[in-house]
Amino acid sequence: MQDCCVHHVEFGVRNGEEYLRKFKNQYKFALVATRFTKHLKQWVLLSGTARILLTQQMSPLANSVSDVYHVPWSRLLQANQEPSLSSIDSVYNVALQVKNIQAITERLSRSGVTIAKPLQTASDNHGEVKLAIVRSCIGNVVHTLIEDAGYKGPFLPQFTPVSDSGDQSQKLTTHLDHVTFACDSGDSGRILDWYSNCFGMRRFLISRDEDEASGFVIDSEDIGVRLKAFEYWKCAETGLTTGNRPDSIKFVIAEALPNQGPNQVDTFLHDHEGPGIQHIGLHTDNIVSTVAQLKDNGVEFAEPPYTYYTEVGKLEEICDIGEDVDLLRENGILVDAEADPGDGEGSGGGEGGLRYLMQKFTKPLSDRNTFFLEIIQRVGARGFGSGNITALWRSVQAYMNSQKENKS
Q: Tell me: the pLDDT tens digits for 146-200?
């Protein structure tokens, strides 16, 4: 198995077949394994190294029901809540590979972290895996910790391989780029401290325009959001694995600015019934062709303001990096050059050594204004361009505002 920090991301869904069709037919993920029990239906999807686990809960799971891989996702991590079927879809589990799972779970337990599922072992004829599930400090988010060195199966024990799982010829995305959490206003500092103490994560600045103390702030008439980001520090001694790959996962925290009125973060918190994972970024090597193909496949996107491409210096910036302005405008793709010096890791830049990234947000995947996807291409850039951040979040806000107008 290729060495990377994130093993998989899990979606808790009410209709697994619907999401399965969506990811296979629209996003061109390959189905690689399944697992069906009395209480659960699960499907494992793969695009490049990005693995998504769809989990549909078929019946309420009482505490006496032992399932090595699962904890419910709908506010059900509250200790005194009765088991029930979820009324929402939620991306709630970012599974992390670890080197010494016993040591890390013991250390987390001593630190007061809630262990949702204690250390267990699962095995089949492909080998053995050790795993435990810990609760994050964010809403219903959990992390399955997995020690799977030497395991040769397509996913995990008890999952049945799918015969056509090797077909990745149509894949549009290559790996998971980042995960973004939506949290309560003023909570980002506590979250950063928790991930630093528990997993050795380290703050990194989203863009060169960010203030380290206050984060990256978008404060305008139509949007008020604060963003902060962190990633696993390769010198940490918490037992995560990252390898030397430039696509090591990044985490972003989004919180609404106080006294700004309702915005997309507040909308997420309301519709999701609490903090959680707002979106994940999927990396592609060619965002123009990927977005065009996704549109043809029926994927709906939140479009950026048309004026984005006429902003002062934007056309010159696009021309400098050698991209086609008309193609980017036609597909609503945002571009941001990042000229910051790198840290010696990762790939180089584009023409003239410029570092830049291109991005686009989808509309929410469920019937609520909760989780969506981001398609992103990095050309040497490790952070997130300030101009893109504002335009991307404004595109989501415009979409949500239009929905409110249609309902009124």
A: 999 989 999 999 999 997 655 566 799 999 999 999 999 999 999 999 999 999 8
User: In the CATH hierarchy, which fold is given to the domain comprising 175-407?
Assistant: 2,3-Dihydroxybiphenyl 1,2-Dioxygenase; domain 1 (3.10.180)
CATH 3.10.180.10 location in the chain: 6-161, 175-407
Q: Which residues sit opposite 10 in a β-bridge?
A: 53, 93
Cβ of 214: how many Cβ atoms within 10 Å? 10
The helix or strand, by DSSP H or E, that contains position 394, with its residue range, turns out to be helix 386-407
The CATH fold of domain 6-161:
2,3-Dihydroxybiphenyl 1,2-Dioxygenase; domain 1 (3.10.180)
Q: Give pLDDT, residue 406.
A: 64
Residue pair 49/4 in contact (Cβ under 8 Å)? The answer is yes
**Cα radius of gyration (the chain):** 21
Question: Is the predicted pLDDT of residue 222 greater than 70, yes or no?
Answer: no
Please name every residue paired with 131 in a beta bridge, in sequence order, or none if there are none. 120, 146
Residue 199, C-beta contacts closer than 8 angstroms, at least 6 positions apart: 96, 232, 236, 238, 240
Tens of pLDDT along 356-365?
A: 889 999 999 9
Whole-angstrom CA distances from 95 to 91, 145, 151, 191 are 11, 6, 16, 18
Alpha-carbon distance of 326 to 306, in angstroms, equals 12
Is 22 strand, coil or helix? helix
One-letter amino acid at 37 equals T
Predicted TM-score (pTM) of this structure: 0.89
The C-alpha torsion from 231 through 235 and 240 to 243, rounded to 10°, is 90
* 110-to-13, 17, 94, 106 alpha-carbon distances in Å: 33, 40, 22, 6
Sign of CA dihedral 54, 58, 59, 63: negative
